[in-house]
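This part of the workshop introduces the protein records we will be handling. As an example, a complete record with its sequence and its C-alpha cells follows.
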Amino acid sequence: MKLRTVTATRYVTPLREGGSLPAIVEADDQGLYVLKFRGAGQGPRALIAELVAGEIARAAALAVPEIVFVELDAELARTEPDPEIQELIRASAGLNLALDYLPGSVTFDPLVEQPDAELASRIVWFDAYVSNVDRTARNANMLVWHRKLRLIDHGAALYFHHDWDDWRARSTRPFAQIKNHVLLPFASRIAEVDESMRAAIAPAINDIVAQIPGAWLADGAPFAAAREHRAAYVEYLTRRLDAPRAFVAEAIRAHAA
C-alpha cells in the first residue's frame, strides 16, 4: 500500500515515552496521528525502521495502524511553550512519519489478553525476522483496539542499519533476543506459520523499500547513492528469508525452553 502524505496543522500533546518524545498532531485531513520526529533519537533510521517493519507486518496481514508521511512546518514551534518541543519541531521540519492515532485503545497486558497460538506465532516470527528488540513484557508495544491486537513502534527494529559493517553475514543470523518476547509463551505454532509468513512478505519487499524517502537515505551510510542504499535493504531482507531461516529455528528453540 502506497503511503499517504498529510500536513501537520496543530501540535496537540507530547507522548513522553523514552527519549524520542513522539506527539499527537492534527493533520489537514482532520485526522489525529502519533508523529515520530525525524529530528529525535536515532533520526531518519528510526523512521526507516518504523516504515519498513510496519509495512512488512501489514503485508503479513498483521494489524498495524495506518502509517503516513507527515509534512511538518517549523512555524508550529512558535505556539509551543516547551523549549525542548520547540527545538524538536524545528529540527524535524520537512518530511516525518506518523501512525494513525487509535482513540480508546489500551496497552496489551498478557495477564488480561491471551492471543491464540497462531497469531502469537506470526507476531513472534515477524519480530524475529525484523530483529525487533522492543516487544517485551516491560514494553509490549501492542495496543488492543476494538478487541484486536495492533502492532506499534518499530523504530528499534532492523538495528543492523546503524552499522552496515558485515551486513550480508548478519542477514542470516538468528535473533537471540527473541527469548524476551512477550508473546513467546503463546507461540506454539512458529514452524507451522513459517512458510505462509515468508510467502506473504517476499513479494512486498521491493515496493516497501521503494517508499523510503531519498532524503532519509543521505545520512552518512556507506553507499554512494540512495539507489544502492535501497538495494542493500532489499538484499538484506530477501537474504533473511532464504532457507534455512536461522531466526525461525532460534524462535522455536526459545519457545521450547
Notes: The helical segments are 44-59, 83-91, 117-129, 167-170, 190-201, 205-210, 226-241, 246-256.
